[in-house]
Amino acid sequence: MRVLKVAIIGAGIGREHLAAYRRLPEAFDVALICDLDRARAEEIAGNVPVVTQLGDALASDVDLIDICLPPHLHVATAIAALEAGKHVICEKPLATSLADVDRLEDVSRATGCTVFPVFQYRFGVGVAQVLHLIETGLAGRAFAASVETHWRRDAEYYAPDWRGSWAGEQGGVILGHAIHVHDLVCLLMGPVARVTAMLDTRVNAIETEDCAAITFQMESGALVTSSATLGAADNTSRLRLVFEGFTAESGLAPYAPASAAWTITPRARSAAEIDAALAEVTAPPLGFTGFLAAIASGSGAVTLAEGRASVELVTALYASARAGGAPESLPLPKDHALYGGWRP
């Protein structure tokens, strides 16, 4: 396995990415950290060189640019990296319009470089269990699910001027927070066919939404409800997935719902069948480490197409909410009113 040289762009969430790279020295070598705030970058860098200009990172001999910037900078930075011949890891959201995803796809295709959208919640024992049960045929039909993203975000969180704004963060709880559990629903229950959404700003004095009540109908016919708020007393995420063969329920860990084994309750399948299948599960490393390990191994990495599906879902949710909660069907056509973006 060839060790990939990496430049991390942004030392905020980039701190957590760096920790994950350091757990995989056989696959990755962080060669540069780039941040306009040199002191912030040097705080985490150790012996890794620090630069303050993106151009210096793009001109270096790294193989991979890891984008950990505010959302409004993602697409332009990713395109610049691709055009410089670098593969790209991009924090969520990958983009804030389907038109921009089109641009990323075009440049990725033209350069032969790959884009990996970050969805680290996929990696860990809980999700691995459910995926294995589905793959072995024990799940049967998907019936329904309920998911919750109930987090606490107060004024301190919104101190950076880009947060909570349409210009900077580009969206609220459905874009920056619930996007993770919605990705898990799609991973485990298949594509979304139709959505309805009600969104409101009820918690903080910000531009973007911080509460959401959502329904999905999946292509399989399964029905899903999603409740999201940034006004909870604490931080919890929860998924409860109902299949023909069993019901699977996560714990409440807010930022790593796959970190522990999920509760699997048999229905049409016996406990012995399910226990035997679960005994076969080898869990990937948790979170960012598992996300990076999948890239290194070439198996199970998050794809640009999956990133596109996430952006399309968010687009549909904003469209439904602005139409008073009217149903919105997917996929969205290129002439859709919000194809070029959902900013008001």
From TrEMBL:
<feature type="domain" description="Gfo/Idh/MocA-like oxidoreductase N-terminal">
    <location>
        <begin position="4"/>
        <end position="116"/>
    </location>
</feature>
<dbReference type="GO" id="GO:0000166">
    <property type="term" value="F:nucleotide binding"/>
</dbReference>
<dbReference type="InterPro" id="IPR036291">
    <property type="entry name" value="NAD(P)-bd_dom_sf"/>
</dbReference>
<dbReference type="Pfam" id="PF01408">
    <property type="entry name" value="GFO_IDH_MocA"/>
</dbReference>
<protein>
    <submittedName>
        <fullName>Putative dehydrogenase</fullName>
    </submittedName>
</protein>
<feature type="domain" description="GFO/IDH/MocA-like oxidoreductase">
    <location>
        <begin position="128"/>
        <end position="243"/>
    </location>
</feature>
<dbReference type="InterPro" id="IPR055170">
    <property type="entry name" value="GFO_IDH_MocA-like_dom"/>
</dbReference>
<dbReference type="Pfam" id="PF22725">
    <property type="entry name" value="GFO_IDH_MocA_C3"/>
</dbReference>
<dbReference type="InterPro" id="IPR000683">
    <property type="entry name" value="Gfo/Idh/MocA-like_OxRdtase_N"/>
</dbReference>
<dbReference type="InterPro" id="IPR052515">
    <property type="entry name" value="Gfo/Idh/MocA_Oxidoreductase"/>
</dbReference>
